[in-house]
Design goal:
This protein is mostly helical and about 325 residues long. It has helices at about 5-30, 45-65, 70-90, 95-110, 115-135, 140-160, 160-170, 195-200, 245-260, 275-295, 305-320, 325-330; strands at about 180, 210, 225, 240-245. The chain is built from twelve helices and four strands; from the N terminus they run αααααααβαβββαααα. About 55% of the residues are buried.
Length: about 325
């Protein structure tokens, strides 16, 4: 692994941590503000409806790219980014005052979508989305969501490969559905090669990014790391790309565990986090490190099987250590 790629891995870990810690910090504020999106967060149907919505959105986005409606997709995602940013800022200031920085996020994405603007918007968007979904999905729905999306991601990347087509359309829109991981201080997303060309490692081929987003379409999720071209030398690349959904989806379980698990909270300043949520974070980051190692080696992979698997494994281990019965940890106690 090249030294600058170590820095890239550290950077992506930092982005994931920012999304995770941001979501955990927002959970109490979102609960107090009554932002829970469903009446019964323990209903497993919530997850299935969300998966259906993701699949439908994926189809709509693929159709939009087919008929050259890229601009409409870009405006939609920028609008969603500003909207989710408003939720984040409203946890800190009044709803009216929160509109100012939220609009600034949207304006920045439209006027100057450089990598640091996209990553900043992506972290705000990801933390807000994960926090909202985390307080709306009980433990069983959250676990089902992660399991189903991991399978869907694997099928869409290794089987139908339609996620690769979606990623190719998204890459050059410069929107916070894909996080940008620069490998040099001089890197600019707005200069030189397009994002898809950079992801592919060549000047003329489009990337095969594995946009996990699972689904990817959903503004709150985004997809896997871009897959480099098999002939590109890893050290020649100036950036990696990883879908925002890879950070958001496992964080939904982290936020759900912090909200609904009966495990006692740990003495962590500013965060109401328990052991199941903490180890779900650790498991996600372990999966991320394995994923990044494969990406650096030029081996494209679906991200959610590793990331969601790590989050679920860490959550269950943390629940057992914290003394939570496995039936309760799985969210099945209410149905027995």
């Amino acid at each position: 692994m090249f030294p600058r790629e170590y820095r890239g891995v550290a950077f992506v870990v930092g982005l994931f941590l920012a999304v995770q810690l941001g979501a955990l910090a927002l959970v109490p504020e979102f609960v107090d503000s009554g932002y829970q999106a469903v009446e019964n967060p323990d209903n497993p149907a919530n997850s299935l409806l969300y998966v259906v919505a993701i699949v439908a959105m994926t189809g709509l986005m693929l159709a939009a790219f087919r008929y050259d409606l890229d601009g409409a997709i870009r405006l939609l995602i920028v609008g969603v980014s500003a909207y989710l940013s408003w939720y984040v800022f409203s946890a800190l200031v009044s709803p009216l005052a929160a509109a100012v920085p939220a609009l600034a996020v949207g304006a920045g994405l439209l006027v100057h979508p450089e990598w640091y603007v996209i990553d900043t918007a992506g972290v705000l968007m990801g933390a807000g989305a994960a926090g909202l979904f985390g307080i709306s999905f009980g433990l069983l729905p959250a676990l089902l969501l992660l399991a189903v999306l991991a399978v869907y991601d694997a099928i869409s990347v290794y089987g139908t490969e339609h996620m690769l087509s979606l990623a190719e359309g998204i890459m050059d829109l410069n929107i916070p559905v894909v996080l940008v991981i620069p490998l040099s201080l001089s890197y600019s997303l707005l200069d030189g090669e397009t994002a898809s060309e950079e992801a592919a490692g060549v000047g003329e081929e489009a990337a095969g990014a594995d946009n996990d987003e699972e689904s990817d379409a959903d503004p709150a999720e985004a997809g896997d790391p871009a897959e480099p071209d098999d002939h590109a030398e890893p050290g020649d690349r100036d950036a990696f790309f990883i879908g925002l959904g890879d950070a958001v989806i496992p964080t939904v379980l982290i936020a759900s565990a912090a909200t609904f698990s009966s495990a006692p909270n740990l003495a962590v300043p500013l965060l109401g986090v328990n052991l199941p949520a903490l180890l779900a974070m650790v498991g996600t980051l372990v999966g991320l490190l394995v994923l990044m190692r494969w990406v650096i080696q030029g081996r494209p992979h679906a991200g959610l099987p590793l990331l969601n698997g790590g989050a679920i494994g860490g959550y269950l281990i943390g629940s057992v250590i914290a003394g939570v019965p496995l039936i309760e940890a799985l969210g099945l106690a209410a149905f027995l």
